[in-house]
Amino acid sequence: MCCFVAPMAEAIVTTVTTIVLEHTDKSAKQAGELQVATKKQTVCKNLKVLSKMLWGGSVLLAFEHVWHGELQAFYPFLTAASSPEAMSQMWHEVATVGTSMAGLVTVAWAALMAVRSKFHKAVPAEVEAHK
Prior knowledge:
Structural class: mainly alpha
Helix content: over 70%
Number of helices: 3
């Protein structure tokens, strides 16, 4: 019914966090704290990947709900909001399915970042070995 709300909420939080970190990164660069700025750039880049994954999934899920008539362009926007019983079922779906989807995307992102980090640490050692 509206399981896309949980990943969308996480996407909003990661987007806002990225914007705040980028703003403080600019402040750190102006203050001359290059090492802090570099770490924040890496965190921002990684959070942008998570944000894009979450936004993409949320948009696709929302489109799927529009396709099946569960989401509409007029009030009530969610067809499940028409009765209290359906609302209860909707919030249960958000709490179970939506949260588990958001968690799964976050776990996949963490695994991707771990593999990415592993390869980025291995590349300089290989480059120095070939010199």
